[in-house]
Amino acid sequence: MKHILKMTASVMVVGLLAACGQNEPKTSKKIVMGFGVGTYSTQFQKGIEPILEKQGYQVETKVFSHNKLIPQALKEGEVDATVHISTANMGEMNHRLSVDMIVWADVPSAPQSLRSIKHDDLSKMQDGMTIGVPNDPINLERAVRILEDLGWVNVDPTVQTVVFSTQAVTPKRFNVVLKPMDAALLPRAMEDLDFAIINGNFVTSKGEKISDGLAIEQSPPEHLVKVAIREVHQNEPWAKDLKAAYESDEFKAYIVNEPLYDGFILPKAWR
């Protein structure tokens, strides 16, 4: 019994030390950034990293296979900041994971677009055609809003974004068949679909232009991607330097002169 109590006490001490470590100020000039798959990591590596390195920072980027893994990594201190989330679901994630994420900076944000390799214009749409859509609630809600704006479907206005599903969608002009799947898989599934609504960062990752889509999302502010950090770190020098880099004229010049970002929604302060 004493042995068990000693082990329990040891585990508690280790857990407390780990929790304290996640909240302590950084003592080194190293910043670890977390990203999902797509072009936001490219924005950072080519537009932000050089600025930080000139200030003496060592920078590391971690790309996660799925965005849902990133908030936990931020909470546990595996990454210092992330570029993957919007205000549409930040509050829900903070509550569910008991984390203190805050919006730290704006980034050029990629709208979704309706695309097809089978049909070259929207007039080809007919009843029963398949449309690939992201299967997570946030991006699914964004996607069907494009179809709603086209007059193809109705969307139940009472369904909250964080629990959104295809059950909130009913036919209007067309009886479409929605095919939800992982957002990152949609570009590769287009041969099996009539249309697909694809997140902009996956479009540009293929070397294509968002502006070439058949219909482009008019992204509301709550769906624009943000830099996020933990609130506990907001007064630390590295966080202030990261924010300044994203708000710098140097980063703006990189973005506006890079064709890769044609069609991205620029931060409001740049417009």
Automatic annotation (TrEMBL):
Q: Mainly resides where?
A: membrane
Coiled coil region boundaries = none
By its UniProt entry, which PROSITE patterns does this protein fall under? PROKAR_LIPOPROTEIN (PS51257)
* Keywords, alphabetical: Lipoprotein, Membrane, Palmitate, Signal
InterPro entries hit by this protein: Lipoprotein_NlpA
Q: Where in the cell is it found?
A: Membrane
Q: How does it sit in the membrane?
A: Lipid-anchor
Q: Which GO terms describe its cellular component?
A: membrane
* PANTHER family for the chain: D-METHIONINE-BINDING LIPOPROTEIN METQ (PTHR30429), METHIONINE-BINDING LIPOPROTEIN METQ (PTHR30429:SF0)
Family the entry assigns: Belongs to the NlpA lipoprotein family.
Q: What is the name attached to this protein's record?
A: Methionine ABC transporter substrate-binding protein
